[in-house]
Amino acid sequence: MSIEFSEVINQGGGTKDLGVYDPTTGIGVVAAVSTIGSSTNSKQWVKVGVGDTDWRPIAMQDDLIESSLIGTTANTTIMTDSSVLTSGDYLPATASNLHIGTTVSAIGDLAFEIESLIGHLTIPDSVITIGNSAFSTNNLTSLTLGSSVTAIKDSAFLDNSLTTVTVPDSVIELEDHAFSTNNLTSATIGDSVIIVGGFAFQYNSLETLTIGEAVTTIGDYAFDGNNLTTVTIPDSVTIIDAFAFNNNELFDTFSPGNSVIAIGSNAFAFNSLYLFTIPDSVVYVGTYAFHNNNLTTLTLGSSLSSIDAGAFSTNTITSIIIPDSVITIGSFAFAVNNLSTATIGSSVTTIGNQAFGWNSLTSVDCYITKTAMDSGASIFNNNPAFTLNVPIGDTTWDTLIATSPVSYQGTTVTVLATLS
Q1: What pLDDT does residue 107 have?
Q2: 3-class state of residue 409 by DSSP
Q3: Side by side, which strands form the sheet with 7-9?
Q4: Any idea what DSSP says for residue 372?
Q5: Rg (CA), the chain
Q6: Which of 88, 152, 175, 418 maximizes the CB count within 10 A of its CB?
Q7: Residues 6+ apart with CB under 8 A from 291
Q8: Which class for 255: exposed (0-12), middle (13-18), buried (19 or more C-beta within 10 A)?
Q9: pLDDT of residue 72
Q10: If you average pLDDT over residues 149-158, what whole number do you get?
Q11: Stated pTM of the model
Q12: How far apart are CA 200 and CA 197, in angstroms?
């Protein structure tokens, strides 16, 4: 069998008149032709040789397509007559080791979504933007990103099989779900990314993570559901959002950086932390932020103002000092620990229900008024009887001092005016 074509695009982007494919020439027969694109601007591939060994882009008669490269099914290169790749069928049914032509500057939304891409993907240095879901739901196993990419949009590489990724220093925007649901064990985020989008690396197997020096915000669920045992968070980071590092394996060598202002809800829940210091920069710790770790020792920073509900619950903390900066302690904030001693700083005005419940308290130094303590209910629920030390001269405690030991806030306390 032989098929004649008037023009075939070669590697340089020009044309070559091959005339007839003939098995006797060594080029091989044409096995199939696949038309790609619209009828007004058809893009075609021709498969030659034995099996799926070689795909070549072709132009029928005068319909010449400008293309930067030619590839095979084992090394497929996208051809295009546009600088922007948009949604549509640019490929044969399955393409592996895909290269994008160097004329391309933008890869549009959904351009290669669910296209059965496999193997390696090379994004050339010409590409600036990778659009929403551009390569989502494929089976890519490795990726090279060009040095000019500035934006990786929402879900760009969602649901592939990537094992490692390096986001180059050119990238500024790294949006939600960008690399979620892959097989990543290692990721490097370049030094120009400012915000790591929500869910960006969720549900991978990350063991190694490098975060660039320009990142200021780590978004919701950004690294949720990985295998991180440690990570260095640069001092540029000021916000760690909800569930950011939830459900990892973070251990005692971990530090959140020295500039963080807010730690969101569940940000470090379900890890293996047992020593932790909240930096002096932190003002807010969200609900269940450190829930269900192995914390035995916890140091709270001098700027901390608000500790939300359940923030440090279900750990093994043995002693805690609430600094004078703290105004609000949420419900269950320190519940279900091994606390034997606690100090409550002088600025606390609100304590939530059962904030210190389910512990083993023997002594509490309480520098606040009874009025502030009574803002919550059963604050010391399910503790043994203990000594509650209060400030000398604070008359709000006089009745309890006079009637001690007394049932108060979920347990029996002996109130003594001993604090100066």
Answers
A1: 85
A2: coil
A3: 15-16, 7-9, 54-59, 43-48, 30-36
A4: H
A5: 31
A6: 152
A7: 266, 269, 270, 310, 311, 312, 313, 314, 315
A8: middle
A9: 30
A10: 98
A11: 0.82
A12: 5
